Amino acid sequence: MASPTHQLSTRELEALSSKAITAKDTAYCPYSKFRVGACVLTQSGEYFLGANVENASYPVGTCAERVAFGNAVVAGHRDFKAIAVATDIKPAASPCGMCRQFMSEFTSPSFPVFMYDGEGNHTLTTMGKLLPHSFGPGDFTH
Questions:
Q1: CATH class of 10-130
Q2: Would you give per-residue pLDDT tens digits along the chain (142 residues)?
Q3: Any binding-site annotation on 46?
Q4: 65 is catalytic
């Protein structure tokens, strides 16, 4: 995918990637064995981690991206700078459709999404490229 511009410092990007990669270690995935870690960076400079949590009834599981955003939202954050998602496969996996919709609730189309593969290499995209023509809070009429 094309490399969109982003406003992260080298230090922020290094922290974001290392935290997402480390978060894979906390994944609970006894069924799929597919570890996913995520780290979301708030505009105020705080990092929130997430990992996938599976359930014997597959649809009940939760993805790493939604866990990371949920942790941040519960802590009172609504403004985000970037997310990193890390898997063990190559090429890197992108967020699923449900996560894309969930993340669009709190982000703009230019929001950067860094996807890391099992070797630590990343692909950079945006929410707008992952979820074009998205449905969000601005689509409600009151």
A1: alpha beta
A2: 334 457 899 999 999 999 999 999 999 999 999 999 999 999 999 999 999 999 999 889 999 999 999 999 999 999 999 999 999 999 999 999 999 999 999 999 999 999 999 999 999 999 999 999 888 887 876 6
A3: no
A4: yes
58 is an annotated ligand-binding site residue: yes
CB count within 10 Å of CB 51 equals: 23
Predicted TM-score of the model (pTM): 0.92
Q: Is 121 annotated as a binding residue?
A: no
Q: Point out the catalytic residue in the list 12, 14, 65, 105.
A: 65
Q: In 40-111, which residue ranges form alpha helices assigned H by DSSP?
A: 64-74, 97-104
Q: Where are the domains of the chain?
A: 10-130
Angle between helix axes 64-74 and 97-104 (nearest 10 degrees) is 20
| 99 in a labelled binding site | yes
Q: Cis link prior to 112 (omega < 30° from 0)?
A: no
Identify how many contiguous H helices and E strands the chain contains and give both numbers: 4, 5
Rounded Cα–Cα distance for residues 42 and 83 (Å): 9
